[in-house]
Amino acid sequence: MLYLDIVIGLTALQFLYFGIKVGQARGRYGIKAPAITGNEVFERHFRVQQNSLESLLLFYPGLYLFSGHISAAWAAAVGVVYLVGRQIYAIAYVKAPASRETGFVISMLASMVLLLGGLGAAVWHTLR
User: Fold this and answer.
1) Is the pTM here over 0.70, yes or no?
2) I need a labelling partner for 36 at 20 to 30 A (CA). Which of 8, 24, 49, 118 fits?
């Protein structure tokens, strides 16, 4: 369970980091709040943060389901894959948005494994 707690904390810190990068880009490129447009690099940082928020809506329930019905240790391991995928995604998106696919696929597959595996196991345990 401790590994799972670490992964949960790291995903929250990663999201916080993405938010800090948005704030830094806002200052660097002179984008005054509440504007979310005006500089392409700022907008890339902003999209990384928003897309990551959207992906967490699949990741956290999947992590919960998988850890509860299959294995907390394996859920944590898949969670690390998710973290790596999100970081690859963020770096690629800011550098060249068209190159973000690899990181997206890695993190989305990790979320799908967690969600579908956990949900499938929950249904299986219900039907036994």
Assistant:
1) yes
2) 8
